[in-house]
Amino acid sequence: MEASQTRVSVIGLGSMGYGMAQSLAKGGFAVTGYDTRAEMVAKFASEHGSGASSLAEAAANADILVIVVVNADQTQQVLLGEGGLVASAKPGAVIVSCATMAPERARALGDAVTAAGLHYVDAPISGGAARAAEGALTMLVSGPPAAIDKARAAFDAMSAKLYLLGDEVGIGASFKIVNQLLAGVHIAAASEAIVFAKRLGLDIARVYEVITASAGNSWMFENRMPHVLEGDYAPKSAVEIFTKDLGIIADISRSEKFATPIASSALQMFLMTAAAGMGKDDDASVARLYAQIAGIELPAKDTKTQDSKD
Description:
The protein is built from 15 helices and 9 strands. The protein has 2 domains: 3-169, NAD(P)-binding Rossmann-like Domain (Rossmann fold); 174-309, Orthogonal Bundle (N-(1-d-carboxylethyl)-l-norvaline Dehydrogenase, domain 2). Helix 9 (171-199) runs parallel beside helix 14 (286-294) and helix 12 (239-256) packs antiparallel against helix 13. Helix 8 links the parallel strand 8 (137-141) and strand 9. 56% of the residues lie in helices and 12% in strands.
């Protein structure tokens, strides 16, 4: 089926979902957006496609339903709650689940969707809001080949790197959890390092320049530490994302009897940052917590520069 003939509904028009819906529309798909925030639905409808006022309306006649919500509980509610997609989607529609969740939750949701005569693809995402809007995400996909084939053109519109990881739902979720372990640890380590450098009396802008050209660099150091240098903690990815994801890793660690001490330490840093009132701020706020504990002053946002841009 050509893209123009394929009807896709995106459930969840947050920073990631909106960009993904936008990329699908640019790819020629007939896209409907749904979100609990009516203003986001209206914005998408005016700019890129059409909007739905309910899950049932979003599911009507959709060939592919892409769910981009926060976690497994929200995904389950969207699928199986009152007025959910499983009750209203047409037979044979493909459900694409993008939230980070434990593999066993992905498998359970996949079983429920399949039992209802629908297809389910486990497709967690990585890359951030900017890449979502560019159709340049990394997608970690697993599920029945027939389901993946039906959604393949949509995946291509949303991603720059598409990894087909196996025929079983839950494999994609497992890969994403490994990624999140590293991402959370790297953010916590980068935050510790930049504030440690400040304690040593170093120019942290110069530290950033040197480290990003040295072996100690990481993608997270390079991507997140500019937020610290600019004093801008408007959430690109919030602290609470990592309290959730590293919490999932801690649960798996316990159930598998496999120690993850470094990830556990990172989790504690994110939990303390959230407890200090920064849970909804950018995840680089872990650096702010280190600074508060040590009595160190980090750069503040230049409000005059910001005002001149507005």
